[in-house]
């Protein structure tokens, strides 16, 4: 049987602290899988391990039947795993389109000397990049902000643009780090719709870290709760939210 995505006994230590401790789960293609847990539970660290910003101490990460544990962050992106960050990392003075083209750039296969000579391949890639950016702006209804500098847009729109930028690389697995952080209720509802749209319409598998339980319940097929780096519960959103250990951890018991 083929594996879409799997984390097997993943562990990372910072000095004496085991921030992610023997974590295992798998995600089927097409799922929305969410990681929850109290502050400091290891959620962002797990994301950083998967996108290879951190190197695991032990364990394996499998993506589409390939062991990607030792690949570089760039190679991971090239395999089709894209991510957003908790805090928006866009170029404020550049337009929406330009920010999306920067996202696309990581996909470029041409080298610098080719860039300079402007060979046909570069031109073809540029056209493909622009087309991908236009398509993503169509799907996420961002065309009206196409030429507007990011800095002058509301925070909720910027968060959607950050997701759009990750989509421009054509990922098979999209990692969203707290998509609702900084958003009001209305913007969070809109974000839930976008996540469902990306999942249903574009067929992209989503792995997300999220605090807002209304968003989690609305979009997640399955939920993993972490605490002190360890797995506490895994199941549907309802099962996990009602798990006694999860209830106790959130009450600080
Ligand atoms: N680079 C690092 N060096 C040392 N300790 C780290 C590092 N990154 C994370 N930690 C520690 O690992 C633990 C898990 O942190 P992490 O940021 O993954 O938690 P989290 O679940 O994402 O929390 P939050 O919800 O607050 O974002 C924390 O105790 C944190 O201090």
UniProtKB/TrEMBL annotation:
GO cellular component: plasma membrane
CDD domains associated with the record: ABC_Mj1267_LivG_branched (cd03219)
MF terms (GO), sorted A to Z: ATP binding; ATP hydrolysis activity
TM region(s), chain numbering: none
SMART domains cross-referenced by the UniProt entry: AAA
Keywords, sorted A to Z: ATP-binding, Nucleotide-binding, Transport
Annotated ABC transporter domain residues: 5-253
Domain of life: Bacteria
Keyword Repeat carried by entry: no
Pfam families assigned: ABC_tran, BCA_ABC_TP_C
Function: Involved in beta-(1-->2)glucan export. Transmembrane domains (TMD) form a pore in the inner membrane and the ATP-binding domain (NBD) is responsible for energy generation.
Name this polypeptide is given: ABC transporter ATP-binding protein
Source organism of the structure: Rhodopseudomonas palustris (strain ATCC BAA-98 / CGA009)
